[in-house]
Write a structure and sequence with these properties.
The protein has 251 residues and is α/β, with parallel strands linked by helices. Helix content is 41%, strand content 16%. A hairpin with a 2-residue loop joins β7 (219-221) and β8 (224-226).
Length: 251
Amino acid sequence: MNAITDGCAIVTGAGGGLGRALALELAQHMQVAGLGRGMAALEETESLAGGNFLPLLADVSDPVQVAQAFEAARNTAPITLLINNAATYPRRDFLDETAGSFMDTVAINLGGIVTCTRAALSDMTATGFGRILNVATFADMHPLPASSAYAVSKGTARIFTRALIADIGDRFPGIVVNDWMPGMLKTGMGIPDGLEPSQAARWGAKLALWHDPSLTGTTWEMGAEIPPPRSLKRRLADRVLLRPRVKPRHL
């Protein structure tokens, strides 16, 4: 397994929950810059990391703040890895939303991924090397009540992953991009009996550090790859031609 160990990793939403857990895992292997909206929370992550962590105050929905944070991270080392983790889940019924409140959620959950990805690609396209991991969910496929803004924004973020690959995949095969779904977590955005963020982060960090072009476009849930859907015709053809079944990978 080819692993990224050089350069700087950026983790958004690193002030708590899954983002903090991911930053702590990655800090054992490389320099990490953590973005968040609260400096006190980021400094707590820094104290837990024991070094290799740079706290950077930035709202990912604000392109100016993101640009400033990325420039500060870039001063430590070239950006080679980005985990787009920051998200908000306001749990509002659509009739309680306004157009403004709905789009505020979109600005973080989708806009933040777009803004941070574009900033990271300035470094990655210059060298032809990099790793982008987008934290995703199945919320777009099975929306829960009072989740319209979250479901739409996170679902559209999965489309963005595919659109990004369509634009840069052929030209920059050394920039590996894919989606990862950590599962239901025991966090403020998750459920009380969910998975501990530290457990999910072990999978997420391992996947993020894995630099293999064959990962581009794949989707992972927890520690396993989700096989792409295959039509009945394709499955029957594989059986007739005795093609071996491609087994999903595990971390």
